[in-house]
Write a structure and sequence with these properties.
There is one protein chain. The protein has 20 helices and 13 strands. It has 406 residues and is an alpha/beta fold. The strands form 2 sheets. Strands 1, 2, 3, 4, 5, 8, 9, 10, 11, 12 and 13 form an 11-stranded mixed sheet that branches. Helix 3 links the parallel strand 1 and strand 2.
């Protein structure tokens, strides 16, 4: 498998930057050539290479070239699109989808799957790849959610019950903050705090517009930042580590909020650490957050029907099992997700959170929303004289200004 991946990568490098269905290669091979752009992560490349090999074995008239993109995947893709030299098929993150859809760079995939196939996907996973015209521009290949990791030994030693509500979370975080250990590590950004907004009855989108300064969001972040300022929680930066996983693995903290990807990290960082994972404690209603990547298709491909068939194959139930077997991300089909839970029971909690997980997607100005929210949260964290409402109102004004320019 690794040898096959290497051969695919070397083929891509030999061709240089391969655009949509390079006709010069077509003339020399009698095969339909399609490029598939992936992240450069070897794990990702191996999975897609295995899938491409399976597709080509059943479709000898098609050659699939895997093209790992190093560096900033999205900036490279945008640059390629300016010159109409993008790959035929490529990853599309839910966070990035809005701006690519708005720029009319993605082909419609509305007719790619039958209704019964679409019904096999969690609706929230599909919705992030629909445009304002309700057209579908991406088919989710996998997803992740957020949950609460906890150190079993620390809880047992302190005689504490697992928290299910905000008040209980604060109580156990306070009780566990002792002897050089902090109760909770919180990554101070929208991509970890958002479940608290929704749990409090707030939201980040209304009528297609970002709503950071929803009063319920403000109230939720006041609770969040209160944990940090009271000393029961700290950010990874305050703890002097790169991310929550490092803090949790080294037992600097008793709890943290992270995604299912951290399970793999724990196998490497602290294979002997006994821990558990439960849903994030809630106030008004349970909530989580979902991160999704889809396959999308260029409007410029010379072979749209063949490219659709490849995407259909890559997101099929059978190929979703390949994703499930790999174990890092979760398959996007409900049918494959059940197999995933059987094979990886310790990750079942993440799979079960899919129906209540809000999207990491704020439309065409997603990047602006994240940047402005980060500034507001940092301001509140560092300056006690700034209220959450003041910071969020300022950020909202900047978000609204950016939206008006679209």
């Amino acid at each position: 498998m690794k040898k096959l991946s290497f051969l695919f990568i070397m083929t891509t490098l030999a061709l240089g930057i391969v655009g949509c269905s390079d006709n010069s290669d077509q003339a020399s091979s009698d095969k339909i050539t399609l490029t598939i752009a992936t992240y450069s992560d070897p794990f990702e490349v191996d999975i897609v290479t295995k899938q491409a090999e399976a597709y080509m074995s059943n479709n000898p008239d098609v050659e699939l070239i895997i093209e790992p993109i190093s560096g900033d995947f999205w900036e490279v893709l945008k640059t390629r699109m300016v010159s109409n030299n993008e790959p035929d098929i490529f990853y599309m993150d839910i966070f990035q989808a809005g701006q690519f859809i708005d720029a009319e760079k993605l082909a419609s995939l509305d007719d790619l799957l039958a209704d019964e196939d679409l019904a096999d996907f969690e609706p929230a996973l599909l919705n992030g790849f629909r445009g304002q015209d309700d057209v579908l521009y991406g088919i989710p290949k996998d997803f992740s959610t957020l949950a609460l990791y906890y150190n079993e030994a620390m809880f047992a030693e302190a005689g504490l019950k697992l928290p299910t509500t905000w008040s209980e979370l604060e109580e156990v975080a306070k009780a566990l903050t002792k002897d050089g250990v902090v109760g909770l590590s919180l990554q101070n950004g929208i991509d970890r705090a958002q479940p608290f907004f929704y749990s409090n009855g707030g939201s980040m989108m209304k009528d297609g517009k970002p709503t950071l300064n929803d009063p319920k969001n403000i109230e939720a972040y006041e609770y969040w930042i209160g944990l940090i300022k009271d000393g029961y929680a700290q950010t990874p930066q305050q703890l002097g580590v790169g991310w929550d996983g490092d803090a949790f693995a080294s037992e600097m903290v008793a709890m943290t909020i992270e995604g299912n990807w951290m399970v793999n990290s724990m196998l490497e960082l602290a294979p002997d650490l006994e821990y558990g994972v439960i849903p994030i404690p809630y106030k008004e209603k349970p909530a989580s957050m979902q991160f999704t990547v889809a396959y999308s298709m260029s409007k410029n491909t010379d072979y749209p029907e063949e490219a659709k068939d490849v995407i259909r194959f890559l997101t099929s139930s059978e190929q979703q099992q390949v994703v499930a077997d790999a174990g890092r991300s979760m398959p996007s089909r409900t049918s494959a997700l059940e197999e995933f839970k059987t094979k990886w029971p310790e990750r079942e909690v993440f799979a079960d959170l899919a129906p209540i997980a809000s999207e990491f997607n704020y439309g065409v100005i997603s990047s602006t929303v994240v940047d402005e929210t980060a500034k507001a949260m940092e301001k509140v964290l560092l300056d006690d004289s700034v209220t959450v409402k003041e910071a969020f109102d300022t950020a909202q004004a900047n978000i609204d200004k950016a939206l008006s320019k679209q």
